[in-house]
Fold:
Amino acid sequence: MSNFIDVILPIPLERLFTYAVTPEEAAHLLPGMRVAVPFGKSKIYTALVARVHTQPPTAYTAKEIHEILDDDVLVTATQMRHWQWIADYYMATLGEVMRSALPGAFLLESETFVVLNKDTTVQEGLLEDDEFLVFEALQHQPILKVREIAGILDKKNALPTLQRLLDKDVIRLKEEVYEQYKPKLVHYVRLAPHYADDAHLEPLLHSLSRAPKQSQAVLALFQLMGTGNKPIPLSDLEQAAHCTRAVVKSLVEKGILETYQLRHDRVSHEQQGGTQAAKVLNEVQQNALEDIRSHFAENKVSLLKGITSSGKTEVYVQLIQTVLDQGKQVLYLLPEIALTTQLIARLQRYFGDRIAVYHSKYNVQERVEVWNNVLAREEKAQLVIGARSSLLLPFADLGLIIVDEEHEASFKQFDPAPRYHARDAAIVLGKLHRANVLLGSATPSLESYHNAQKGKYGYTEINRRYANVPLPEMELVDIKEAHRKKRMKGHFSERLLQEMTDTLELGDQVILFQNRRGYAPILECTSCGNAPQCPNCDVSLTYHQYKKQLRCHYCGHHTAIPQGCHACGSVDLDTKGFGTEQIEQEVRALFPEAKVGRMDLDTTRGKHGYEKIITAFERRELDILVGTQMLTKGLDFRNVNLVGVMNADALLNFPDYRTHERSFQLLTQVAGRAGRTERRGRVIIQTYNPYHQILKQVSTGDYDTMYKEQLYQRRQYNYPPLVRIVKITFKHKNYHVLNEAADWFAGALRQHFGDRVLGPEYPPVARIRNQYLKHLLVKMDGRASVAGTKQYIAKVGKSFAAIAAYRSVRVIHNVDHI
Structure:
């Protein structure tokens, strides 16, 4: 009887593929193991075993696998069920989920190697110069990679040369899979067993009397060993003895020392000193904790609405401690990598080295180590802190999931597929593991709050700050009036400058919030009004003064600052609008004595970019910090007493149905950074429209009124949380083909859904990377079957793909678009 396996390939194809295996391989293989399989003409991919069975495929002859890559399961059964839910709900394929979930080092793809064809006689005189170079290189080195050949030829593209050599039968191509992950091995040193006690020390040192450096190294090793049996790193010995590696090597050759290697994780979060007990909760926190536990007893998701600086983290610590004491794992989800820096330090005080961190700033080697530690239920990975990708780790026994700042839009994955929402996927993961789920925020999303109001989620509230510190005093400053009376210095009102001066004189810190990076969004000719545009996108280029360039924030295209206008030749160029870079420059000019920092995408690109800026601000090495929205997300600065919002109107005037909700959340969150200790903080919000309803609600902290007004408007126009939305995006380089294709798709959907289909319409930025875009919205109200709607959209998509003229149009599905 033949044996077969169904595998998931990391490519966007809907179905599983079947491969033949031997009975011995079938006995070894389990769902969740990796195998290398041939796919296409010659490519080899890493595939994941989904099922082992004895049913041959009917449509094709099953190929044999290339090799088995794992001795044990890499992906758990619960994890596979979660992946399947993500693929089904978000209209993605299992291959796309697999590619998104697994660290790149696990997704081995074959590399093409070039070897000489030993079965043919080569006539060297018939070879061209570049062909002979490759032929000669292969005689010295029997196997070469394609990129190595490109280096030999000093060409970017070596494929034409290789194709000619293939045609002449001089070379052969072979595909090989190679392992990308290499464990980090640390060198250690110890005395040979014969010299391991003090009695042999004196004769040993006497024998080394003519080699003082070696004698010094042996003495240093004895001192490092002390009374314990702790391994001694080779680097520590070299440092203590002030010797080189050559000295140690000589002692090893004499049989006096032995060296060995131990495997180490690249990232460790070891606590210096012991852990401390959790803080005693105040009455409000204790009541909230008991409420949350009662919701968990009813198997409900719990929503905790706690105002900024109310001590939500201390409540989380109590819940985490309970779950860890039961021997289960905890996942702590954060919307922003910047938050992990502060949170790790706080949680280490309570949980020591039981913490693992997982996010995109880690390299593939580090992510593999965290994955393996979580899978093996290592103690150093009992509490996992991470951004949305940590949701896809192989948890074995998950007991609690905390989604902090659950309202954040950055929990939603946009590109590439699967376009999942980490908060919603976390709730499903909790159900699969029978784990409790807690959502926390000072400004919950309308969806979560609506679910709490309906009784679907448990709900609890902390409505006063820890230690009864008062909420910051908010003030709206009318900059329209200030401009009219000429009371502005650059982009700063007199009121904001006065408060900044007072705050700095008291020795406190200031945060300035402007949600736009760069120096200015537009560089405009004052003669003809022309502004440089991105050649690939329908946007103007942003002016970055620091790098002296114009840059597109959509495709990354950049160019040097022009000396004159490209349209009329005038040299009179001026900037319009302002970003964080310009605010930083103005602050330095206005407060020359103050130490100023900036936190945006440009200053946090490095692996430790966030950590350096946050640590410097915490240590009061900076007086004023200018930043974008990454400053707003739950950071805890103890000495900030003033927050300035440079221009609130930029948030309010955006073409999106969530604009007012997001503006309320963002402004409330950034205001919450002020006055988190004894003294009451102040928040200055500069605006051209101080009478705007949202700004008034922010200044009074009136979340309930904002919720009721927004819910009323969403009910009027059928938007979430009352309906669900599938956004379908069409992409194509040809404007006319895109229009025809989008209209066809919309027409097919309208036959079934009628007026629940909106569009197709062009977005505000209708061309990105030379691809035109058009959007279509399908609304699903309470009467519609969510699964049925998605099935019908998928059915129309298959018919659409069958039309030759539209086959090149890319169709992207975004379920629960936000």
